[in-house]
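User: Could you go from structure to sequence for me? I need the amino acid at each position, not a summary. C-alpha cells:
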C-alpha cells in the first residue's frame, strides 16, 4: 500500500517522468479505488485501461477505462459505467447502468440507465454487450435521442418504437429480444 501511494504521489506531481507502455498505466493492478490521468490517452494514467476502478476515475484529457463507479473527464470513455459518468464534452460507454451526462454527446452500446445531454445515442456503433438480454430499458433526455427504451426530446429516433421517428417522446421495450 505504501508503495502504491508513493508511486501515486510521484505520478501526480511529476507525470513527465512516468510514461507507460501502450495500453498500460504506471502501476499494474487488477483493481483500484482511484484512477488519474493527464494526457489524451491511456499512456499517461496511473493504472492500465484494463484495471477495474471501484471508486473515482478522473482525467484532464481523455479517460479510457474498463469500468468505474464515478468518472469525470472532458472526453470520458468507460467500458462499463456503474454509477455516474460525466464528460465535459463527450461520454462514451459500452454499457451504461446508471447516469451518463455530457453537454454535447452521450454514446452508449447499451443503455440501462439515464443518458442526459443534447445528443444521446444508444447502440449506434455496432458493439453488442454481454448484457444484451437485460430487460431493463434506459431513459434518454435530450434534444435528439436515438436508440431504445423511453426517449424524451425534440426529435426521437427509435427503430423499434411505436413510430420510428416521433417528436417529444418515443418508447420501445423489447425485454431481451
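Assistant: Here is the amino acid at each position, in order:
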Amino acid at each position: 500500500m505504501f508503495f502504491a501511494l508513493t508511486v501515486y504521489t510521484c505520478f501526480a506531481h511529476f507525470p513527465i517522468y512516468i510514461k507507460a507502455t501502450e495500453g498500460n498505466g504506471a502501476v499494474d493492478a487488477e483493481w483500484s479505488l482511484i484512477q488519474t490521468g493527464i494526457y489524451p490517452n491511456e499512456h499517461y494514467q496511473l493504472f492500465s485501461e484494463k484495471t477495474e476502478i471501484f471508486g473515482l476515475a478522473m482525467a484532464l484529457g481523455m479517460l479510457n477505462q474498463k469500468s468505474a463507479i464515478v468518472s469525470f473527464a472532458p472526453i470520458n470513455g468507460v467500458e462499463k459505467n456503474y454509477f455516474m459518468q460525466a464528460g465535459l464534452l463527450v461520454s462514451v460507454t459500452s454499457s451504461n447502468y446508471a447516469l451518463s451526462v455530457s453537454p454535447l454527446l452521450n454514446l452508449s452500446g447499451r443503455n440501462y440507465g439515464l443518458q442526459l445531454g443534447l445528443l444521446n445515442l444508444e447502440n449506434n456503433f455496432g458493439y453488442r454487450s454481454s448484457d444484451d438480454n437485460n430487460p431493463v430499458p434506459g431513459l434518454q433526455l435530450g434534444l435528439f435521442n436515438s436508440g431504445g427504451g423511453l426517449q424524451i426530446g425534440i426529435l426521437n429516433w427509435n427503430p423499434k418504437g411505436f413510430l420510428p421517428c416521433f417528436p417529444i417522446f418515443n418508447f420501445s421495450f423489447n425485454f431481451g429480444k
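One structural detail worth keeping in mind: The helical segments are 2-13.
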